[in-house]
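Exercise 4. Each item below gives a protein and its sequence. For each, produce the structure-token representation.

Item: MYM-type domain-containing protein (Halosegnis rubeus).
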Amino acid sequence: MKDPTSDLGEDISPDEAPACEWCGDSLANAPDRRTRTWVENREVQRVQFCDGACLDSWRDSQE
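Answer:
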């Protein structure tokens, strides 16, 4: 499988693919995945989600 999150397009197994920050599902076959990035303490932070609904739920929990 091609890793959809890799800048290099490296092959990885679905077990090694990143997981959704909210629900924990694998992002290997998540065509609607979303990524939230921000800078905190001069470092880039990134979390990934399987879809917009999980991203929205995570955002709501951060308030």
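Check: The mean pLDDT is 83.
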